[in-house]
Amino acid sequence: MRTLINVSRPRFWLYLFGPALIGLAVSEQPLMYGSNARILALLLLWTLPANFFLYGINDLMDSDTDSLNEKKDTYERRLATSHRSYVRIGVGLSVLFMLSGFLLTQDVTARLSLAIFIMLGFAYSASPVRLKARPLLDSASNVLYVMPAIMIAAACGQIIPSSAVVGGWAWSSAMHLFSAIPDISADSQAKLRTTAVVLGAPKSLMLCALLWSVSAGVALWFFSFSIVSMIAVGYAALPLFLLRSDRESLFSVYRRMPIVNAIAGFALFLSLLP
Prior knowledge:
Layout: H1 2-7, H2 14-25, H3 30-34, H4 37-45, H5 48-61, H6 63-66, H7 71-74, H8 84-99, H9 101-104, H10 108-125, H11 137-140, H12 147-155, H13 162-180, H14 184-189, H15 195-199, H16 201-223, H17 227-241, H18 247-272
Helix pairs in contact: 2-12, 2-18, 5-8, 5-10, 10-12, 13-16, 16-17, 17-18
């Protein structure tokens, strides 16, 4: 059981459950909707089920690159051959849980966002599409991390502005690219053509700065000079300070990003509450 929980990457749950909470926050009455059994069930989909689905497929499809990735020796774990059958069953059950979301809401936008998440979740890791091996599309496909916010907001009767969706998309794309930079060596050895591999570390960091600048611009548009927008500007500046850093330094920063992202997400959540 512990192995199966580890596959879901508990420290990364906030990347799906956090946006779902953001979707709840933009509703006019988050406390009322948050106590609604249907909305609560939709929120819970973005904990273990969605994360096991997303990362379980990733682990099943990435045995080639994981065997070469030093990150799997310390920060994460490689999927043991003896556990693969259990993970397959877990992914199947996770898919069933995710599909139940279509029964929990009648809203077209909510259903569409859930469908996009499921399709991109498969397409990112699984052949023949395998978006993670297609430069630019690997990072762009991380728009899937915006889907929980769109879905929950729509289920509560609200539509997230398209500019905010673009800002979230830019942020998640930059975060994905940033996380791929420490993997350049391992991915290159595995002949995995990611955006980071194609561009190299310095240009990848510059692209991260550009994408996070887009999200910072959106934050400034909606929140003016607030703590949220200042945090967003900090994200845009971070890659520029790391341009001369080696792989170990970049990985050290990457390991701390879940904490930074949790603080940023909490600030955004509080700012959106009525």
